[in-house]
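Renewal narrative, Specific Aim 1. Our central claim is that a sequence can be written position by position from structural information alone. The example that follows is taken directly from our test logs and has not been curated for this report. It begins with the structure tokens describing the chain, in the order in which they were read.
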């Protein structure tokens, strides 16, 4: 596997989008550094969460690999995934923050689909199943069929309304239980987290099938994923509002704030039916500069001028923009997709870097208000944040070019807004081949598809090698 800087080049005819592609690739590469942890035997090239971070994070690792790193830097992607696994008395599990660690499985499966690394697949399947069984014992609520724990993006108390906004003066939601010993643990059941659990069960089934494991076990895992999906729709769907709740509390009450990441995952993982997905896309609040992480703003952050927002409340996190854009593309919402793509490109290009967080009204870097040692203060928006950059690359690779990686092939389903007349992506190193992809015209349906000048079906076998040229005409 290659460890050198990727040679991929994007041309859209619109300078801001091209510049931001190159900037995003540069950001990913600059944040790859030697690292040793988890199951890594020695320091190896791994993906840090950002320029100021000294380590990968499990959640960030998973999303970065899923968004772009599996394609652009597969060796670093593999190393990072392995570095976030732990050996728990001989049982391999996913490490990191307990509630969002299961995100690892989605990234690991995507890595396997891109690279065909069946050796890693065995490890990934074991880690996933062991982690699911561990979480079933520690966090699954038998009454609702949902997993307990915070939201998948929300490690700060600024992400939550009362009573979860008070962790005894700490900014971290992990400290909430120690501040509330009478309750003992975090018993909310969050939308995004449960969507990830459902997807992990389904992926465990696909992994098992790929490995030729017992069919009944695979089917049981799929059924468990189906059960989580049913529980999400039974307990978190708000039919009168046409969208999902943020989370349920221990009494079963729905907290009706909008969680941007949860809504994106509900659509992307088919937790939502087609009708529900369309309703979510219609009813999710989107600010001037993109989808906010949680909306509306909590009263203790909202100032009289309407310009104050919490670090995890009302602000724009670009990685969430990337997932929301993919959800919009999945259901043909060119308007919503183009809005996120344009907003993120504008914010990144303005300051020549991908920041961690942005202000929803000004589009300027903005760390947001957070509780810190009992006081509310402004935090910084970290520089050169990896998942902000890969969130943008996701919009290019997964959506504009419609790359769909399966274990045995690459399918293409482009989604091209009318602002683009032609797109080209060259130097794509995929398995043993190098691809050059040209898209002519805008549209969401392929009118013609050629491989090396010959008409071809809209997929590329993973067994090809050498250089190949793909040309698609859209309508």
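The sequence written for that structure reads:
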């Amino acid at each position: 596997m290659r460890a050198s800087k990727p040679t991929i080049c994007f041309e859209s005819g619109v300078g801001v989008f091209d510049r931001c592609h190159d900037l995003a690739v540069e950001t990913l590469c600059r944040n790859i550094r030697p690292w040793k942890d988890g199951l890594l035997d020695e320091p190896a090239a791994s993906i840090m969460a950002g320029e100021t971070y000294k380590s990968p994070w499990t959640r960030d690792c998973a999303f970065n690999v899923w968004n772009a790193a599996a394609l652009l830097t597969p060796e670093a992607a593999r190393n990072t995934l392995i570095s976030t696994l732990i050996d728990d008395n001989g049982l391999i599990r996913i490490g990191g923050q307990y509630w969002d660690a299961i995100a690892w499985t989605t990234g690991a499966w995507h890595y396997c689909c891109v690279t065909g690394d069946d050796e890693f697949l065995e490890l990934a399947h074991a880690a996933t199943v062991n982690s699911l069984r561990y979480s079933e014992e520690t966090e699954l609520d038998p009454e609702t069929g949902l997993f307990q724990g915070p939201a998948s993006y929300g490690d700060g108390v600024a992400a939550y309304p009362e009573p979860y906004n008070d962790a005894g003066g700490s900014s971290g939601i992990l400290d909430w239980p120690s501040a509330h010993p009478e309750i003992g643990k975090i018993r909310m059941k969050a939308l995004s987290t449960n969507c990830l659990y459902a997807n992990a069960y389904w992926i465990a089934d696909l992994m098992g099938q790929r490995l030729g494991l017992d069919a009944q076990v695979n089917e049981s895992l799929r059924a468990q994923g189906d059960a989580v999906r049913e529980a999400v729709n039974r307990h978190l769907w708000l039919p009168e509002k046409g969208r999902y709740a943020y989370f349920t509390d221990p009494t079963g009450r729905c907290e009706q704030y909008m969680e941007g990441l949860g809504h994106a995952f509900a659509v992307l993982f088919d937790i939502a039916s087609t009708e529900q997905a369309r309703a979510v896309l219609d009813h999710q609040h989107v600010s001037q500069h993109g989808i906010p992480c949680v909306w509306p703003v909590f009263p203790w952050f909202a100032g009289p001028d309407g310009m104050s927002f919490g670090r995890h409340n009302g602000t724009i996190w670009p990685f969430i923009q990337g997932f929301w854009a993919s959800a919009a593309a999945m259901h043909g919402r060119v308007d919503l997709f183009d809005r996120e793509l344009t907003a993120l490109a504008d914010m990144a290009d303005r300051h020549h870097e991908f920041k961690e967080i942005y202000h929803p009204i000004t589009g300027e870097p903005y760390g947001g208000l957070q509780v810190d040692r009992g006081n509310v203060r402004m935090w910084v928006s970290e520089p050169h944040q990896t998942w902000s950059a890969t969130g943008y690359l996701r919009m290019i690779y997964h959506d504009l070019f419609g790359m769909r990686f399966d274990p045995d092939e690459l399918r293409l389903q482009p989604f091209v807004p009318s602002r683009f007349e032609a797109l080209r992506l060259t130097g794509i190193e995929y398995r043993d081949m190098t691809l050059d992809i040209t898209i002519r015209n805008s549209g969401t349906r392929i009118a013609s598809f050629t491989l090396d000048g010959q008409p071809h079906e809209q997929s590329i076998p993973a067994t090809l090698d050498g250089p190949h040229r793909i040309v698609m005409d859209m309508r």
